[in-house]
Amino acid sequence: MKIKNLSINGKTFLAPLAGITNLPFRLLVKEYGCAVVCSEMISAKGIFYNSEKTLDLLSSKKKEQPLSIQLFGSDPDSMAKGAKFIQDLKVANIIDINFGCSVKKVVKQGAGVALMKEPELTKTILTAVRKAINLPLTIKLRSGWDHSGQQAFKIAQIAQDSGVDAIILHPRTANQGFKGKANWDLITKLKQQLSIPVIGNGDINTVEDAQKMITHTKCDAVMVGRAAMKNPFILSQIDDFLATGSYKTSSNYEIFRAMERLTRMYVVYFEEKPACKMLRGRLSWFVKGMPGCSAFRKNLSCINSKNHILTLIKEFETGLV
User: Fold this and answer.
1) Please, are residues 8 and 2 in contact by the beta-carbon 8 Å criterion?
2) What is the mean pLDDT of residues 33-49?
3) Contact criterion met (CB below 8 Å) for 36 and 64
4) Are residues 314 and 276 in the same domain?
5) Residue 101 annotated as catalytic
6) pLDDT tens-place string over residues 258-267
7) How far apart are CA 142 and CA 158, in angstroms?
8) Whole-angstrom Cα distance, residue 214 to residue 63?
């Protein structure tokens, strides 16, 4: 598929997830064959005020490309300047604007899903960003503040008319969060409405779910978030299944090597002590449902070094044989 002039080899996107889709995790997923990886949400105001924490989120490596960097905010000027700043860094292949985050502190700023109530402001922001950059521009939407999807359809049309190159739709309302069921019928209707690519997101928990979404909605690609947290292989498995009708299930051996790989990358990127604190929660995703996973999760709560983590992983793996 193509987004503007960017050719993408595959139909899978890693969803932007705050605190999750950092550089090490994106590199891991890219190594296992994801078509496009996405950054965590990045504040346009944080860029504007030269926040060190915000700028750290823009760290990238060539081998993770194509990379989509997601920007959030509600001020047209800072959004345009933030997008231009990202483009000038030459790390992003796509800039995405968040219209879907329903976290209270984001909504209170008038950003994320709050923008779906503001069509005129939306048009001003998208027009300003489009003028500021020539990179492919996408937006990620929810269905809106009610179940009808009418806000999503309206904002998507404004986006297409303003020069946005693709739309990502997560068809849950602002109030649903991740609860309830995603209404894939809204993706179908949006695809029928627009001439630009539509990427579907929501309730893709298995490889087969991705095929069902594409068959049901005729969307151009799929975006996967939470399922990739526990199975970084799922995105390449989806692409294989869509291309050939079959895919290789990841073995326990591959899962444990992925855990070791992520551990080493976290330590290099975040340094050992911060990495250990973060990995206490992260590594438990990979072994969910395995015999003894509760004890392993408990042991992770006291990890204090890279070698300690690698030893626990090896002990757990050996105990499963």
Assistant:
1) yes
2) 94
3) no
4) yes
5) yes
6) 999 999 999 9
7) 15
8) 28
Name the phi and psi angles at 68, rounded to 5. -105, 125
Q: What is the CATH number of the domain that holds 103?
A: 3.20.20.70
Asked whether the bond before 76 is cis by omega within 30 degrees of 0, the reply is no
Q: Count how many residues are written for the chain.
A: 321
In the chain, how many domains are there? 2
Average pLDDT over residues 164-175: 95
281 lies in which domain range? Answer: 252-320
Do 196 and 290 reside in the same domain of the chain? no
| Domain match, 133 and 272 both | no
DSSP string covering 155-202, please? HHHHHHHTT--EEEEEEEETTTTT-S---HHHHHHHHHH-SS-EEEES
What is the CATH number for 298? 1.10.1200
**Euclidean distance between CA atoms 242 and 210, whole angstroms:** 9
Which of 193, 211, 244 terminates a domain? The answer is 244
Q: How confident is the model at residue 49 (pLDDT cuts 50, 70, 90)?
A: confident
Domain boundary among 244, 268, 292: 244
* Catalytic residue from among 34, 101, 219, 276: 101
